[in-house]
Design a protein that fits this description.
about 475 residues, mainly beta, Neuraminidase, 6 helices, globular
Amino acid sequence: MSSFRSTIAAFGLLASLIAGREPAAAQDLKMPTALRPDIRIAHVMTVEPEAVRILLNPVDGKLYYTTFPGDVFEITGFDGNGPVARKVLSLADHGINRLQGAAFHKNTLFLTGNVDANNKKGTKGRMVSFTNRRGKYKMTVIFDTEEYPTNKTTFDHGWNALEISPDGKYIFVNSGARTDHGEVQDNGGAYPNARDNGLTSKVFRFPIKAHDLMLSPDEARLKQQGYIYADGIRNAYDIAFDAEGNLFGVSNSSDYDHGEDMFWIREGRHYGFPWVMGGIDNPQQFADWQPDPVKDPFIPRSSHAFLMKYMHNDPGFPKRPEGVTFSPAVQNLGPDANEYRDRQTGKIMDGDTTGVTTSTFTAHCSPLALFFDTRKILADDLKGDGFVMRYSGGARSGMMRPFTTQGRDLLHLDLTYDKGKDNYTVKTKRIVEGFTGPTDAVLVGSDVYIIEYGGREGGHLWRISLPTESNVSSKNGRKNTL
C-alpha cells in the first residue's frame, strides 16, 4: 500500500525556524477522539509541513522531530510559555534529500534516507550520526551505498525505519522495496530490467560503532558481510523492540488487496516479498495471469499500479527462491482492523463474523508509528503491550473504503506467543481516532506524542495520556503515586 509514499513524493523546502507557531483557534482545531474514558488528549503545537518522525533524546529529555526534506527540530519550552521548535540540522548538514529515519542512542542522533544520483534517475542510501557536544553537532558517516535505480513512481520507498537494539550494540534499519509488487521499474529505460535488488525490501543490521561503510547492491556480498538481517519485507516503515527484546515491524503491502503485515522479525528469515504479501500470493508471479478487475476482485480499479499497467502479464517475474520457507505475519484476531477480502468469493468479510484470522491489518491502511510499553508502566490491560497508528482513513481512501470507513487511528496491540506456530497472534482494538495523517509516535512515560505529516500546510503534535496503574488506583480511592 502506498498512500503515505504517494503523499510525500513531492515536497518543498521548509521555513528555517518555527517559534511556537500559533495553534489554530480552539473552535477551528479538530481534536482526535478518545474511544475509552481513561484516555486524555491535548494539543501540543503546530508543526512544520511534511513531518515524519518524532523522537526523544534520553540524555537531555527533549523531544525532536524530523521532516521529509531533511530538517531536524528540537522542541523546548514545555515548562514555560508553550513549546518552541528550533531547527538544529538541515539538508546542508547531512546531505540526505529524502530523510525518513531517525533514532537516538544516548546523546547520538542517527539519520537515514536517500540521496539523489544520476540527475535524479538513480539514488544512494545514506546513514549518518550526529553527537551533540555542548551545542555543536559532530557528524559521522555510518554508510553510503553505491548508486542503484530509483524510479518515477510512488513506490520507491527508500531507507526509512531506524531502531537501536536494547543492548545498544546494533543499529537496525529498513530499506523498502523500489517497486509496488516486484515489477520492472526501469525509470524510462535508464536502468533496463531493474526490479528490486540487494539493497531493497530488507531489514539491515550494523554494529553501533560502524562508520564509513560502502554498501553494494550485490546481495551475496551483503550477506557475506553480515549486514542483511531479514529479507522479503516490502516496506517496514516502522520497527520496534518489545519489552522482551523481540523486534517487530509493520509493513505496507501493494496496490493489490493484500492485508498490511506485522512481522516478528528474526535473523535469517524471509517474509515472502515479492511472492507473498498479506498471506496472499502475488498473482504477477504466475505466467498465465492476465489482470482484469472483472475476473480478479482483488484489483482495485482506482489503484495507481493497475492504471499505470504495472499489474501485467509478466513471464520474466523472478522464481521463488529454492529451499526457502517464508515466515508468516502476525495473525490478527480482531475485534478491529481485521476486515479482509475472501479468496474464494472475492467479497469483503469481517474476521469477527467469520472467525478467520488476518495477516495482519485491513488492506491499504498503511500502518505506521509502532511502539511498545517496554517499561511496563501502563494500566494492566495495556501493560507491556504494543501500539500502532493507521495513516489512511477508510472514509477518504478509495482503495480502503470498500473494507471500512475507519482509520487514521491509534490501535492497541495485545500480542500472545503461539508456541505451536512459533509466532504471535494479536488482539487489536481502536483506542483513539480522528487524526490527520499520523506518521510517528513516541511513548514518554505514559504519554504518547503523535505527530502528523500535515502536507504543505503543516500538521499537529498531540499528547495522548494513557492510563497507568497509579491512575487506576487513585480512581479506586487509593493514593496516586505519580
